[in-house]
Design a protein that fits this description.
Layout lengths: L8 H27 L3 H4 L53 H12 L2
């Protein structure tokens, strides 16, 4: 007896029985399915006919004509004549000098 693979003759026999039962179940299911029994007969469908109604393919919707509006004329951007104002941060409507003064007053104790 090999310690790595213990012999189990009872399990092999059980496995063969299970396989045989599954084959019988599949065979009976396939036979019943091919005869149109089971579900179809339970709902009153005739043998050989599908219980699902056949539907025709839907037709395409008619094309809708789009109404095109005239494009708005493109206007040139307004060019300022004076020097460009430099970037500055916004401090809730307070000038940079006032903001700095408030920060300094809060930081000194």
């Amino acid at each position: 007896m090999n310690p790595e693979t213990p012999e189990k003759p009872a399990d092999d026999n059980h496995e063969a029985e299970m396989t045989q039962n599954l084959r019988q179940d599949v065979a009976s299911w396939s036979e019943g399915r091919s005869e149109g029994t089971g579900h179809h007969r339970a709902f009153g469908a005739e043998t050989g006919r599908s219980a699902v109604a056949k539907h025709e393919a839907p037709t395409a919707a008619p094309a809708v004509k789009r109404v095109r509006t005239k494009a708005k004329p493109v206007t040139a951007p307004v060019v300022s004549t004076g020097p460009k104002k430099p970037f500055s941060m916004s401090y809730d409507g307070v000038s940079a000098a006032e903001h700095n003064a408030a920060r300094l007053s809060r930081s000194t104790r």
